[in-house]
Amino acid sequence: MRAYDCVIVGAGPAGGRAGMSIAKAGHTVLFLEKRDVVGVPVQCGEGLSQFGLENAGLSEHADWVRERVKGVRAILPDGSDFTVTIPGYCIDRAKFDQWVVQTAVDAGAELRLRTKVSGVHRHDGGWIVETDRGDSFRARTLIGADGPASNVARWAGLLQQRVYVKAVEYRFAAQDWSYPCDGWLIFVYAQKYRGGYAWVFPKNGFYDVGVLAMDRVKELMDAFCAEMRVPLDRIHKKTGGDIPLRYTFSSLAAPGLAIVGDAAGVTNPVFGGGIHPALYSGKVAGDVAVEALARDEMARFQEYDRIMKGSPFLDPVLWKTADLFASWDDAHYNFAGDVVDHGDTGDVTTMRAFWRILTRHPRYLSETRDLLTMRRGMSLTQKYGW
Ligand SMILES: Cc1cc2nc3c(=O)[nH]c(=O)nc-3n(C[C@H](O)[C@H](O)[C@H](O)COP(=O)(O)OP(=O)(O)OC[C@H]3O[C@@H](n4cnc5c(N)ncnc54)[C@H](O)[C@@H]3O)c2cc1C
């Protein structure tokens, strides 16, 4: 049986980023990935903030930038809007994932495609990883980067509960349908999405239209497509999938094991963005694994749980904010647009927002506490949410 310093289950952004650090430190790394090609098929809206990239110690590459964006323009039920400036990109997610994983491979990691991990168990202070091809690998350390299904965490007995939202997305070529995004990601809010939203993302020659919601996603998508008059007979590509909303773990780590990315449920519950949290958690897990391998102290992996639970990605205010959005009716969304004066949220101080509520919407004063919670949740989401 072949032995590795680290086996990584799943070659997405979380696993890829972890593998990059571990391979660069000179340890032997094996990626086991069930897909035929890394990153394919893409199940993503492909929005990534510039800060998210930098926060994971990475920098921009022309190969995977489709279009630069200024941030989010929120469209409200009464048709008004406001903006949230967060410079970033619409990326080519397949090329992005391949670039992250290839960087680890260039540093010495091995990649086995078409290999589905079917079980993991503890053995002799390390881990045995079994695959559907009937082979097994010995691992001193193990990274569970297997996306929203989070099987490695389940097999290791760490996962307690999983709640997720669903998203669907259709792509259109610009000659068939277009929307005046003007360099913004368009988020359309309404009560019917129950805390989710519909979106239009510009992709340099293409436009992606999608819906993220707790339930009835297909029905909401049909209604949104009708509203936006998209030519449903000209869909270039369809995608969709599950996005973690709230995962509960006894711990995100065990001796010699870390659970990262969507598998760890670190995805932002307000925007549903998970690439930045995946990259960041992968980086932290990689750094912790390097330390643990160098000192041969597998208990050090608890440090990963401590860092992630104390990080802005898992601040409980995010779930409170998501719950409050889920309770909002259309009037609340329209009110939010008026409070920020339909401008950019960065230009509105808490005092000015409070003054507008006092003078224009006094009936919302009784919700001041919730609104302050949401302001805190939104400012974390703005920085760490995509
Ligand atoms: C429709 C949709 C739109 C989205 N839009 C955005 C967006 O615009 N911006 C954003 O930031 N986030 C978005 N997300 C979320 C984002 O895609 C995820 O958060 C991100 O992919 C998480 O990365 P990851 O590496 O943790 O997991 P994944 O990217 O899911 O990678 C996991 C990998 O593990 C492999 N795997 C799983 N099980 C096994 C196994 N048993 N054996 C071997 N391999 C296995 C999978 O094949 C996969 O390659 C969207 C999600 C969806 C569904």
SS-based structural class?
A: alpha/beta
β-sheet strand percentage: 25-35%
Q: Averaging pLDDT over every residue, what do you get?
A: 97
Uncertain ranges: none
CATH-derived topology of the largest domain: FAD/NAD(P)-binding domain
Write down the secondary-structure element order: EHEEHEEHEEEEHEEEEHEEEHHHHHH
Number of strands: 16
Level-1 CATH class name of the largest domain: Alpha Beta
- State the domain count: 3
CA radius of gyration is 21 Å
* Biggest β-sheet strands, sense, barrel: 8 strands, mixed
Number of helices: 11
CATH architecture of the largest domain: 3-Layer(bba) Sandwich
Fourth CATH level, the homologous superfamily of the largest domain: FAD/NAD(P)-binding domain
**Overall geometric form:** globular
What does the model show?
The protein is of the alpha/beta class. The chain has 3 domains: 2-69 and 91-161 and 247-315, FAD/NAD(P)-binding domain; 164-243, D-Amino Acid Oxidase, subunit A, domain 2 (D-Amino Acid Oxidase, Chain A, domain 2, 2-Layer Sandwich); 318-384, no CATH class. The chain is built from 11 helices and 16 strands. The chain has helices spanning 13-24, 50-55, 93-106, 151-155, 217-227, 275-295, 302-309, 317-327, 330-339, 350-360, 368-384, and strands at residues 2-9, 29-32, 47-49, 65-75, 81-91, 110-112, 117-123, 126-131, 136-144, 159-173, 185-188, 197-202, 206-213, 237-249, 253-254, 257-259. Strands 1, 2, 6, 7, 8, 9, 15 and 16 form an 8-stranded mixed β-sheet that branches. An 8-stranded mixed β-sheet has the order 3-5-4-11-12-13-10-14. The model has no long low-confidence stretch (mean pLDDT 97). Residues 9-15, 32-35, 43-48, 116-117, 145-147, 149, 151, 167, 169, 239-241, 243, 261-263, 267, 273-276, 278, 386 line the site of flavin-adenine dinucleotide. Flavin-adenine dinucleotide (FAD) binds at residues 9-15, 32-35, 43-48, 116-117, 145-147, 149, 151, 167, 169, 239-241, 243, 261-263, 267, 273-276, 278, 386.
